[in-house]
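Input sequence (174 aa), recorded before submission:
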Amino acid sequence: MLKILKIFENDQAPSSDKIINEKGTSPTTSPISKEEKTIIGEHISIEGNICGEENLIIEGSMKGKLEMEKHNFTVGSKGRVEGEIHAQNVSISGQLKGNIKALGKVEITKEADFYGEIKGKSISVEDGAYFKGVIELDREPHRKPAFEGKPTDQALNGHHKKPIAQLAEVNKEK
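Predicted structure, token format:
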């Protein structure tokens, strides 16, 4: 677990009562909740896969696959990520190259550079963000598809189609 903070007094090694986590309790008594988060600092580089059960913020660089479908993922303003992301909600303020599959919302801020594909329920892109990619938004189940049944003549741009039997007769007459 990356969220343990060490408190040093007078440059001495910490005793067990000097180690606390972000919640201010000892590591053995702290339950994991959705509010907890891990921050990867700007001077840290990770290459490989990350799986997690808490929110994650990357200010450093990461290359690989990230899976945390029930939690949120953020690329901070100094963060650089390349890979495949599976998370509840995704927020991008830094650079992300790759594919995102979000169960909820994808937010791209004005500082962001994004290259890739997004699949999610909703998306917001702030004015000034760089975006080059593909977006696929999940359809709400109560909505009917825009196109149902066979296409009409109008849907075929006014092209009138003759049945094949009529086309054969036309060819015989010539």
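Checked by second reader. The CA atoms of residues 24 and 30 lie 9 Å apart.
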